Amino acid sequence: MDANDDTVYVALGKDVEESKQTLLWALDNFQFKKICVLHVHQPAKFIPLMGVNFPASRLEQHEINVFQELERKIMHKILDDYLLICRQAEIHANKIYIEMDDIGKGIIELIYQHDIKKLVMGGAADKHYSEGMKDLSSNKAKYIKQRLPHSCQAWFTCDRHLILTRESESSGLSTEFGDSASATEQDIDDNELALELCEVPESEEDLLSAMEGSSIDLLYSQLEQALVEVENHKREAFEESLRRIEAEKTSIKTLCRAKALENLYTKELKGRKEFEEALDKEKEWRQKMKNQLEEAQVIALDQRMLHHVQIADLDNKIKELLAEKDEFQSLAEQLAKKQAEDVSNSEMHQFLSVFSLSEIQEATRNFDLAFKIGEGGYGNIYKGFLRKTPVAIKVLNRESLQGPSEFTQEVRVLSKIRHPNLVTLIGACSDVYALIYEYAPNGNLEDRLQCKNNTSPLSWQARIHIATELCSALIFLHSSKPYSIVHGDIKPGNVLLDANFSCKLSDFGICRALSIDVTLCHQTSPKGTFLYLDPHFLSTGELTPKSDVYSFGIILLQLLTGRSALGIIREIRNVIDDGNLQTYLDPSAGDWPFVQAKQLARIALKCCAIKPRNRPDLASEVWRVLEPMRAFCGTSGLVQLGCQENQQPPSYFCCPILQEVMQDPQIAADGFTYEAEALKGWLESGHDTSPMTNLQLDHCHLIPNRSLHSAIQEWQQFKPSN
Fold first, then answer.
1. Element (H, E) at 425
2. What is the mean pLDDT of residues 266-292?
């Protein structure tokens, strides 16, 4: 755009309702002028993500680029709306903009870039006009008014009223040149005067005559004054020459800028013409499609009228079929539910002890809150005593929609697999969907890392033991045959700690069994705790063993630092790059060996890689790092936490009659588990009552308790030798 034309630049913001009044004032008062919308775009410093405003400096560059591109599209839409208002007023208008954090500085920058001569902008801070308003109340307007070039004339408005006008100040080159010429002539006169004063008398008589009229000192004084004035005139002439050169340079730059703006305007005009032609074609195509649609609607209406009777009969038949379908679907759902209950009950009777509702109520004193030790998505967890054994009882919340399916899933998984670092499922009660586990007196890993209830902090040796045992449990699940088991909800709250501070992985309600022969992937809706969920699983719904590896990596970082999982990956990566890992380790764990800590942090970051294929294999890579660490730390750190105490077997491993660890546990009709030989001896001696309750036994048949038998065998295999 030509910088020397009569274009009026109107500074408008992103608030269309407020800026529209300023634009309308300009259109009313400059009807025969060209209008150019001037805008300063401020990139957002905070970017909304998942309902939270994150600082732009904390996000990845590609995320910032995507959001900023969206901001620019919105900005262009707003500017196009302003141009539309101008076109409706039959005023030719263009737009210019700049990206800058400070709006005032951005407007001043555009004024100098485009050599703007006329500017209109808002001048009130509260955007409301009051009668008698004669001064600016907007700090932004005051800032711009103070920094406007002399050549720019500005009008400050509010609510379509003029508040203040700032006139331009002329500074023509001709005046400057005239002054310079006058100065040059004056320089010549002064030089001649100096020369006259400096003339030396030709004769002794003339010298004596001069000495009689004035003293020698006076002559020297006048001579020095004349020389000073000559030097001043010379300096002023030189400075004037420099100003002329600078003015010529400015004129050349202005002409070049005007030429560039003229070319830009021509290009913009051509683009606008092409856009208007494309818009006309689009309108023509839409009208054509509208006509075709109307014709099709007329034809469809005629056909609908012809087949109205047939459609009514068909609707009745469809309703009948839908009713039959709903009936069959209801029957199928009832049948599937019954089959699931039958399978669940069959598995419970085959592998687990089955408890009655009355036993559960008695063990928890009718679910007294004083016995409550935890709460989760499934329901409440209570500590209780069943058949003289301390247990943890997880009872389904009645409002839970997925509880019954999780109950069945956990019974199926934990009744058939056994590992020293998986929680032992003792039994179940299908009346209230309750699950009975071995009791872990040291709570869960999340509470221990936070030192809840003033508990002692875990030493770094104990944390390495826990990490190694959790890795062992996951390797066991992922390599299970014939199906690989993915837990799907690995988090510190699901890692229990027994009396020896050994890891016990729990909560298998949402785990999945994947066929090793086909594919190690299961398509499902993401469930679990957000901060520990695999990002790939969240975005695709594909659950794989590498999903557990990601969650395991987060837990490793928490064991190292004792910090929250939120943002921990980026923080650890930054401190490792900066060489400051030592200052980020949890000091309550004691003096971490730096080499092992750094090695553990690096393998944890690998586990937390965004792409599953970049995560390490637990068995071949992670275990090779953790196992030597466990051997290195030994048991010195565990002695402080009592891990060498209480090496006695759990009470539910012992026969109620013999009070010894059972070799062949069998379930009797009273629901208690006994050593097979001891109970047979009891029955063969003439007793037909329960050894525990003295009540009449319904029958004398015994059912093998395979789950308890497996747990006893593993305890005997892994217990420390005396």
1. strand 425-429
2. 88
Residue 97, classed as helix, strand or coil, is strand
- Say which DSSP state 369 is in: G
In this prediction, residue 321 carries a pLDDT of 79
Can you give the pLDDT at residue 262?
84
Give the pLDDT score at 268.
86
Cα(6)–Cα(32) distance, integer angstroms: 9
Amino acid at 297: Q
Confidence of residue 309 (pLDDT cuts 50, 70, 90): low
Catalytic residue among 489, 507, 534, 586: 489
Instruction: Name the residue type at position 223.
Output: L
pLDDT at 125 over 60: yes
Angle made by CA atoms 433, 452, 380, in degrees to the nearest 5: 10
573 or 351, higher pLDDT: 573
How many Å separate Cα 537 from the centre of its chain? 16
Dig out the tokens for 221 from the structure: 């004084």
The region of weakest confidence among 57-66, 269-278, 395-404, 685-694 is 395-404
pLDDT digits (tens, 9 = 90+) for 334-345: 655 555 455 455
Q: Give the Cα separation of 147 and 510 in Å (integer).
A: 66
Tokens of residue 230, six digits: 């000559």
Count of CB atoms within 10 A of residue 449's CB?
A: 23
Whether residue 177 contacts residue 244, with contact meaning beta carbons closer than 8 Å, is answered with yes
Nearest to 608 by CA among 548, 520, 560: 548
Residue type, 648: Q
Distance CA 71, CA 719 (A): 64
Selected residue with higher pLDDT from 715 and 667: 667
Are 501 and 462 contacting, i.e. CB atoms less than 8 angstroms apart?
A: yes
What are 217's two structure tokens?
A: 């000192």
pLDDT at 519: 44
In angstroms, what CA-CA distances link 480 with 329, 353, 473, 515, 604? Answer: 35, 24, 11, 10, 24
Whether the CB-CB separation of 402 and 419 falls below 8 Å is answered with no
In contact, 477 and 547? CB cutoff 8 Å: no
- Which distant-in-sequence residues (6+ apart) come within 8 Å of 410 by Cβ? 425, 435, 507, 508, 509
12: Cα separation from own chain's centroid: 33
Q: How far apart are CA 373 and CA 698, in angstroms?
A: 35
- Give tens-digit pLDDT for 470-489: 999 999 999 988 788 998 88
**Helix (H, G, I), strand (E, B), or coil: what is residue 263?**
helix
Interatomic CA distance for residues 280 and 286, integer angstroms: 10
- Residue 507 among the catalytic residues: no
Q: For residue 572, what pLDDT is reported?
A: 94
d(CA 332, CA 336): 6
Q: What is the mean pLDDT of the chain?
A: 80
Which two three-digit tokens encode residue 18? Answer: 């407020």
Q: Hunting for tokens 């329901």 — which residue is that?
A: 379
Whole-number CA gyration radius for the chain = 45
If you average pLDDT over residues 217-223, what whole number do you get?
A: 68
Rounded-to-integer distance, Cα 593 and Cα 584, Å: 13
Q: Which of 605-609, 627-631, 651-655, 705-709 has the lowest mean pLDDT?
A: 705-709
Residue (of 174, 172, 154) closest to 163 by Cα position: 154
Q: At what angle do helices 16-29 and 61-88 cross, to 10 degrees?
A: 40
E runs forming strands in 181-282: none
* Residue 164 near residue 156 (C-beta atoms within 8 A): yes
> For residue 552, which amino acid is it?
F
Neighbours of 15 (CB within 10 A): 10
Compute, in degrees rounded to 10, the torsion defined by CA atoms 106, 112, 116, 118: 60
Neighbours of 89 (CB within 10 A): 15
Residue where the block lists tokens 């935890």: 374
* Cα gap 494→437, rounded to integer Å: 13
- Kindly report which listed range (23-27, 414-418, 462-466) carries the lowest average pLDDT score: 414-418
